[in-house]
Amino acid sequence: MPKKLGIDDKLLKEARRIGGYRTNNAAVNAALDEYIRRRKQMDILKLFGTIDYDPRYDHKAIRRS
What we know:
The protein is an all-alpha fold and about 60 residues long. It has helices at about 10-20, 25-45, 60-65. The protein has one domain. The chain has three helices and no strands.
């Protein structure tokens, strides 16, 4: 589905160079993929500290076994 986007030529050129992409399309798709993955990771970070673990759980004992 072709779309006409106003993408900064300098940014696109640098993204292609840094990523080693041969086409603009590949660079844009990779950038979108990375953006989505990072946003999902940020959502996961919000969960830290919200899970209660069993106080009897000893992770060091499991590592030793």
